[in-house]
Amino acid sequence: xxxxxxxxxxxxxxxxxxxxxxxxxxxxxxxxxxxxxxxxxxxxxxxxxxxxxxxxxxxxxxxxxxxxxxxxxxxxxxxxxxxxxxxxxxxxxxxxxxxxxxxxxxxxxxxxxxxxxxxxxxxxxxxxxxxxxxxxxxxxxxxxxxxxxxxxxxxxxxxxxxxxxxxxxxxxxxxxxxxxxxxxxxxx
Length: 188
What we know:
Pfam families: DUF420. By secondary structure, the protein is mainly α. The chain has helices spanning 3-26, 40-63, 67-94, 111-117, 120-150, 154-182. The chain has one domain (36-99, 109-185). It is built from six helices and no strands.
């Protein structure tokens, strides 16, 4: 198998994940929800926080030329990110988006609710939108960087990681921020 095969596979996986996430926004949720579903946002927030720390450790390891620790840390971070994605899809299959500022959980923001969150709503949306846009972009970057790293194409790996690493770290950190900002408005 060669790079072309894996690159095609990477783009197929990226397209499938994007299609699933878009479908979750369109399809109505099932009426019966498993009881564990309400734990998922907290687990997702914890996974993002853990990935943020692991990504920083990965950078420290590679700067110290500890390639084995760098590889292991990145594999663990990748596995956690895959678990995050499964939990995210599972949660959004059963729960639609929570509205920032919806204190009474009725799905409608009253004037009083809007006034209560005022300018933080715009900050939240800026963080959320950049998080979502970069999350879409980062998946193929991560997969390509893994392909090049594991196939020992070190120079090509470094070139893609210059882009993949800061985007992945931004997505992980902003995932934690989005969780912390939206969690008071969950309806559970």
